[in-house]
Amino acid sequence: MNEIKEHLATQNIEKFQEKKLSKKTISIIIFIAIIFFLFIVRDILIPFFLSGFFAYLLSPMIGVLESRGIKKVVSVIVFYLLFLFFFTGSIIIFLPKILNETTQLNKKIPEYVQLAENTFLKTKNNLEYKYPLIKEQKVFDRITQNIKQYTENFLSKIPSYMSEFFALISILVLIPIITFFFLLEGKNIIGKLIEFLPSRYTETTISIICEIDEIWGNFLRGQFFEAITVGFLSIIGLMILKIDYAIIIGLVAGLSNMIPYLGPVVGSVPAILIALFKFGSFDIVIKVAVMFSIVQLIDNIFIQPIIISKGVNLHPVTVIFALLAGAKIAGVIGMFFAVPIACIIKNTFLILAKKNSLI
Amino acid sequence: MMKFFKNILMDKEFEEKVNFLKSISLFKDLSRNSLGKLLQIIYTKTYKPKELIFEEGKPGVALFIIRTGEVSIFKKGTLGVEKNITTLTEGNFFGEMSLIEELPRSASAKTNKESILFLIYKVKFDWFIEKNPREGLKIIYNLAAILSSRLRETSDIAHK
């Protein structure tokens, strides 16, 4: 009798374990299927990513009104209209200046190219005269060929950039709509997940989602604030040094500053080149470099301590690896999102490692 | 006219929730605005009767406040028999230690009837303190006072 009971108990345990295993397998399959689906439709994800970025940017301001008892939908509409007003206002103010600078830059490009070619030839002749080995090895010829090849390759891609421009317009129409719904439903998504999940998963799963939510929010808002500050300071600095196209270069410097380590260097290159073309002396190069160093110093001493959150705590080697991986997967956009994604992966693993018994 | 605009602009549920939070000792001395900020990090979950909320020994990462319903806090004996420690009702809270550190739960919790609970996650609370240190300090002070009074009660029982 006892043997039968034992046998039945063992069978029950086996059945229970099989059921648990099959549930886990189904969850893993669903997860992989979702990732695969997102990978297939990755091209259309950009407006959703950007809308998420704007939603994170605006959500604390909406929280201010909400914490005073104002309805969510009213708070969203008020801040949305305010944001659109400032956004459109700044476009109206800055767009003519940016367009003007772009037109001037377009006109000047052949002149700059000619100047660059002359300087290059002068340097080539000087160096080849001083060091004949350079001429023998055809070092400069090879450099010229590489530059030509790169430029031709870039120019051949211009038609595809133009088609992407039209895709960009459709994105610009989509973003405000998606952002509106993200702002309206953002917190509700977590709320609905809490209601939907079985209680034994509620604590851990939602804790991970909350942590991801905080990391993303603080990181994106911080990056945006830092980019604006660096861009604004760079524009002022460039105007003081009387460098042409200060607004465009400042914008590039601000945006590229969002990419750790590499960004500040990349941002200063256009300014150095334009200064070199305009003034033709290395003194101005040093002045521009000093100016960008001061901007970086202000950023490091005053801005970063305010915005860098405890969630964004990665080893420099990890940051470099994440940047390279981001660049490989999704180009420049990949580099922008590499650090927050690396933070999320790190924190998720830390939470899971701490609570492995719950999952 | 004012009433009409108030109805359109103001959230009725907000007032109810703020008044409810005001009655909880953990949030004593917090202004209406501070409670409004706190509401931003609170989530709500409805639990069915006899549903396990958390289990003893599992790491805790959230504080639970009973909005409606009834919850039992219990420990399992060596033979698997549940020993009820206390029964909590509307306005009571449990799992408060998880706001300070993520230690394993010292007891299990389950609902006696359908209950609506407010959840405050440690990760959200940490950010709340960082952004609102004044309010955070008041809550931590209240929490310390509650823990100290519970410790005194336990010592008195042990002494007797």
Describe the SSE topology:
The complex is a heterodimer of chains A (359) and B (160).
Chain A lengths: L1 H39 L5 H21 L5 H59 L1 H5 L2 H18 L1 H39 L2 H42 L5 H11 L5 H18 L2 H26 L8 H39 L5
Helix pairs in contact in A: 2-3, 2-6, 7-8, 7-10, 7-11, 8-9, 9-10
Chain B lengths: L1 H8 L2 H11 L9 H8 L2 E6 L4 E3 L7 E7 L1 E7 L5 E8 L3 E2 L13 E4 L3 E7 H10 L1 H27 L1
Antiparallel strand pairs in B: 1-8, 2-7, 3-6, 3-8, 4-5, 4-7
Radius of gyration of chain A, in angstroms, nearest whole number? 27 Å
- What's the helix-strand series of chain B? HHHEEEEEEEEHH
Helical percent range of chain B?
40-55%
Residue fraction in strands of chain B: 25-35%
Largest interface: A-B, 29 and 34 residues
Instruction: Catalogue the unreliable spans of chain B.
Output: none
Entry summary:
Chain A has 359 residues and is mainly α.
What are the salient characteristics of this protein?
heterodimer; A: 359 residues; mainly alpha; 11 helices; 88% helix; B: 160 residues; alpha+beta; Jelly Rolls; 4-stranded antiparallel sheet; 5 helices; 8 strands
Description of the molecule:
The complex is a heterodimer of chains A (359) and B (160). Chain A has 359 residues and is mainly α. Chain A has a domain at 200-359. Chain A has eleven helices and no strands. Chain A has helices spanning 2-40, 46-66, 72-130, 132-136, 139-156, 158-196, 199-240, 246-256, 262-279, 282-307, 316-354. Chain A is extended. The mean pLDDT of chain A is 77. Chain B has one domain: Jelly Rolls (Sandwich), CATH 2.60.120. Chain B has a four-stranded antiparallel sheet. Chain B has a four-stranded antiparallel sheet with strand order 2-7-4-5, with no helix packed on it. The longest helix of chain B has 27 residues, at 133-159.
